[in-house]
Amino acid sequence: MQPANIGEPLFYQSLNKPFKPCVIIIGGTSGIGLALAHRHLALGWQVVVVGRSSDKIQQLNNEQPHILTFQCDITDINEQRQLFEQLEKSNFERLIYCVGWYLNERVFSLNQQDSARMLAVNLQAFQAVFNWASEQLKINNRHNKTDLNANDQNPALICLSSIAGTMSYPYASLYTKCKRAMIATASAYRLGLKPFNINVNCIALGYVDTQTLRDLNHGDASHKPFIMTQATAVEHIMRAIADNVELAVYPKSMRYLTQALDKAPKRVLYWIIRRKLDKTPHHTNQ
Description:
Number of strands: 7
Radius of gyration: 19 Å
Strand order of the largest sheet: 3-2-1-4-5-6-7
Largest sheet: 7 strands, parallel
CATH topology: Rossmann fold
Distance between the termini: 33 Å
Number of domains: 1
CATH superfamily: NAD(P)-binding Rossmann-like Domain
Strand content: 5-15%
CATH class: Alpha Beta
């Protein structure tokens, strides 16, 4: 697999310039991932973006040629392996996993294809990326640090979860269980990588006014409770990384609400959530 916008020699030459730290953003061709790519670029980082859509990759190449891109379906084992091989020489200091896939399980019953994709995107690929990236950072961390690091921070692994994953409640959706597992996995990596001076941060977000969320809500997501702008979400994420927060939950108002719900009697919470999740199946197992 070749980088999507440049040849291999220039790719490695660009990545290994000593004065630029490198960040890899998995799922950085749109939404929050793309906004984080632009923020890092503005701060002087070398930015590598991995995305699944060839159209989005091409658009990003045209609009921002300084961002290095890879087209890769991160859930495909073969493409995943080739991607890791290509990025082994990148000497990155930060990796952010922004990939997510959501299907409203209050409306749809997951069929086999939906269920497999939900697991693959939100949990299995995330675990594979963190496993590979943690080993790479151990190797990279033995070498000299790059000169440009404004906060003089340790290298870091970051993942974007969901505020739904912070709650423990019955009848939770598969999406919620995946996000909860992501939070627990990140916490384990944080403890395990501490002796290597590698930070691990998990950011659990509420509703963010992205194009994807608007598309899921017929073009308008303004009715979502405590919804944040994309710019606000990026500010929170960058602050959590800078402060090395283990689990950052935003917005605070929604965090307080979920904490209150999490303390409610389980039988009451079960009744409320089951009433909301029960539905007539729109999909059937294949």
